[in-house]
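Postdoc handover notes: sequence design on the structure in folder B. Input tokens:
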């Protein structure tokens, strides 16, 4: 039987393709908890992945994982990484997947970067209730200027870019569960107890080009780390990511 989620907020760090680890975490959360009246906040790929918490009950996350792998396998260069993020948004953030009730009854915050005259600045979009607007903001939050367009993503007369440039891990409240792929998160959450992370800190380059053969282990590891966090049960299998670091 599902339980009430024990946190008021979940924050997802910028991730790139490490969102596959996050998806494993989300699979466990959706299996065991009701997500209702929760503040969901995310940055970059983490913001895209957090939206799977809003998926309809019949959506199979294992099938979503397979689609993720198919999209990744068509990435011929790191320079199209952002466009692949937009492809994922088109595939998953739509009426077929997103539950209107969950979108309405949870608070969604996405962090973006806005290009000013001299520098990039943080731009937070709060209480996103409109699916169309959510899709637009997510596409702005995943557009890396150094890997694709320097023109930004146009939304409400603003030019938006990847939120990793200004807020890799958005500001959170004290009663927040933090999801990250690294042990040295810039927000300092490595010093707190309320965090789900891999057994070792994964290389930053895996955000853009993770080894294809570790992706299933990464997905399962996210699920196992969430189980260990909530149930204090050791995982049945811990992949030796050190072999690839």
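Designed sequence:
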């Amino acid at each position: 039987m599902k339980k009430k989620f024990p946190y008021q907020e979940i924050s997802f760090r910028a991730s790139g393709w490490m969102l596959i680890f996050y998806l494993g975490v989300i699979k466990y959360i959706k299996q065991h908890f009701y997500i209702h009246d929760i503040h969901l906040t995310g940055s970059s790929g983490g913001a895209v992945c957090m939206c799977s918490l809003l998926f309809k009950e019949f959506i199979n996350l294992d099938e979503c994982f397979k689609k993720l792998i198919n999209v990744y396998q068509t990435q011929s260069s790191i320079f199209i990484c952002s466009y692949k993020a937009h492809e994922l948004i088109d595939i998953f953030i739509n009426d077929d997947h997103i539950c209107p009730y969950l979108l309405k009854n949870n608070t969604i915050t996405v962090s973006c970067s806005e290009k000013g005259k001299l520098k990039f600045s943080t731009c937070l979009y709060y209480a996103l209730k409109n699916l169309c607007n959510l899709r637009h903001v997510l596409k702005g939050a995943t557009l890396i200027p150094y890997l694709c367009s320097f023109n930004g993503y146009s939304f409400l007369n603003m030019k938006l870019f990847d939120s990793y440039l200004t807020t890799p891990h958005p500001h959170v409240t004290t009663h927040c569960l933090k999801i990250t792929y690294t042990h040295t998160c810039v927000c300092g959450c490595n010093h707190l107890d309320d965090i789900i992370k891999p057994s070792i800190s994964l290389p930053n380059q895996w955000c853009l080009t993770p080894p294809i053969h570790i992706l299933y282990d990464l997905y399962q590891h996210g699920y196992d780390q969430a189980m260990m966090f909530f149930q204090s049960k050791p995982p049945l299998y811990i992949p030796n990511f050190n072999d690839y670091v």
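Context for whoever picks this up: The domain at 3-243 is CATH 3.40.1090 (Cytosolic phospholipase A2 catalytic domain). Don't rerun without checking with the PI first.
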